[in-house]
């Protein structure tokens, strides 16, 4: 890789990191989702779920977090372009929030399908 490309790549990583730090510091929902993601990963490790289930779990976690990142970015763009409350500005924000909600609901459903049998077996063991 040429020196210029390495420098550009490092800059890109720096900007991405800065964006991630901003979202963690300023977006309560992202912090909540990140906490839940870490909790789910720990539970997955404790329950020793199958590797394909773990991969699916990581994909769903990523999907929700990416949806939240896109939602945050789009909200900021809408705020800049339309400082007053315009019906379309509100609609754009609502649709993005719905996208995050939908991805979260699907992640929960898939999580129940994956973790349900493990939790059920664990409950049977103790009862």
Structural class: mainly alpha
Mean pLDDT value: 92
Shape: flat
CATH architecture: Orthogonal Bundle
What kind of sheet is the major sheet?
none
Percent of residues in helices: over 70%
Total helical elements? 4
Radius of gyration: 19 Å
Along the chain, the helix and strand elements come as HHHH
Question: At the third CATH level, what is the topology name?
Answer: Helix Hairpins
Overview of this protein structure:
The chain is an all-alpha fold and 127 residues long. It has helices at residues 3-26, 28-47, 51-81, 87-126. The protein has a single domain (3-126), classed as Orthogonal Bundle (Helix Hairpins). It has 4 helices and no strands. The longest helix has 40 residues, at 87-126. The protein is flat, with a radius of gyration of 19 Å. It starts with a helix and ends with a helix.
